[in-house]
Write a structure and sequence with these properties.
50% helix, three-stranded antiparallel beta sheet, alpha/beta
Length: 419
């Protein structure tokens, strides 16, 4: 049994070393030289597109922030799923309060039954843009953009080798719900992976309109359940890269329970299965590391049952070392992200001792959840997204089964729970 335990810990050591290289590469991107300041007159006219279905917890703050960007020429285009949607009144009330004129709000008119509703909304918004627009930026309703958000996304596009710029979502759990902690830990790994493999996130992203058109993304979006994941392959075919911009990594302070967390992660992994060329690598890493942890726990139980305390202590020590190694990586990544958020003047919540203790427990829990959701994503043939069911027959064979306007859930008004 000792030999088996040593072999298993060898696998975990390899996993920790590999993850360490990823983390160090991610951290190094935060210390690259800053881009030169671009004069206002040299910045291209931009369109910012926000598609909505349902009223996200901080929707009014999201819209208000987009109306006050430090950018010379831009217009905000908001597509709401329907005029009956709860987001419709919130958006229009916020615009009236701000007396904004550089914004257009429209209901979604054409719902393609071969793609996601978000895909239909983006296609509708882009189709009406005239030739004066050179850049298109995309943002999700759970993002509150700082004043320089648009500028920081657009400036790197001056380099013609860059096809798209992107930030990412960074969860900051406030109350320590298990679902929020697991989502936070899973997302941390996902953000690092996406940065290393140049995978864009559609919630904070920008592209030149000419590149978007040459890549035929509108046609792709009309047949896809995802907007952002197929972009990397399309740009790669044009010898263009996706540039990660650390200053537009966006904090998310929403909460969720464990059930919603499982649904969220499974949806994300379904998209990865359908469109991400790194999917075999994801599956291999997840199953190998999870199997090693499960076998470690099994060996620990066997050692305890047989009163083999020496072996039990050794296995426990090895498992604790693994958890602490992952925790150190988490602290390093959290530090650089918080440094960026603080530099923008945004408030930060410190982790309490209880939160830190729960986070340590949540590390192996997240590993198990990751494996379960990977299996679910492999088997999934239908997915529900904000009350709409999609049938998944293949990456480019998507069917919106039945449309209905968004219905208010039991979520209380003012709640910060994710939709």
């Amino acid at each position: 049994m000792n030999e088996l335990a040593i072999a298993i810990f060898g696998v975990l050591v390899v996993f920790v070393v590999l993850q360490t290289f990823y983390v160090l590469a991610f951290i190094s991107s935060f210390y690259l030289p800053s881009l030169k300041t671009i004069k206002d007159e040299l910045l291209p006219k931009a369109a910012v597109i926000l598609s909505l279905r349902g009223a996200d917890p901080f929707l009014s703050d999201c819209v208000r922030a987009l109306l006050h960007q430090n950018y010379p020429q831009y217009n905000l285009h908001i597509i709401v799923d329907s005029q009956q949607d709860p987001a419709w009144n919130i958006v229009n009330k916020t615009i009236q309060q701000e007396r904004a004129t550089h914004v257009q709000v429209s209901p979604l008119i054409t719902r393609h039954n071969t793609c996601s509703l978000k895909g239909s909304a983006l296609v509708q918004a882009i189709d009406v843009l005239d030739d004066s627009y050179e850049v298109v930026a995309f943002i999700d309703a759970d993002v509150i953009a700082h004043p320089n958000w648009l500028r920081e996304l657009v400036v790197p596009l001056i380099d013609e080798r860059v096809g798209a710029t992107t930030g990412n979502r960074w969860y900051m759990p406030q109350t320590g719900q298990w679902g929020s902690l697991v989502r936070y830990l899973w997302n941390t790994v996902a953000v690092v992976f996406m940065c290393i493999h140049q995978a864009p996130w559609g919630g904070s992203m920008a592209m030149r309109l000419s590149v978007l058109q040459r890549a035929r993304l509108l046609e792709i979006w009309k047949q896809s359940v995802s907007v952002d994941v197929p972009i990397h392959k399309a740009l790669q075919a044009m010898n263009l890269k996706v540039k990660f911009v650390p200053t537009v990594i966006m904090p998310n302070r929403e909460e969720c329970n464990l059930v919603r967390c499982l649904c969220f992660i499974t949806r994300q992994l379904l998209v990865a299965r359908l469109y991400n060329p790194q999917w075999p690598l994801i599956v291999t890493q997840v199953f190998t590391s999870t199997l090693a942890i499960v076998l470690t726990i099994v060996l620990l139980l066997i050692a305890l049952i047989n009163s083999n305390m020496g072996t039990a202590i050794g296995i426990t020590g090895g498992l604790i070392c693994y958890i602490l190694a992952m925790a150190v990586q988490l602290v390093l990544v959290e530090h650089v992200v918080r440094r960026v958020v603080r530099a923008r003047g945004e408030s930060m919540t410190r982790f309490s001792a209880q939160m830190m203790a729960k986070t340590l427990v949540a590390i192996p829990l997240t590993q198990l959840v990751y494996a379960v959701t990977v299996v679910s994503a492999i088997l999934m043939r239908k997915v529900e997204w904000r009350g709409i069911m999609y049938q998944i027959k293949g990456p480019w064979n998507i069917r919106l089964i039945e449309y209905r306007p968004y219905q208010l859930s039991s979520q209380s008004v003012g709640s910060n729970a994710s939709l």
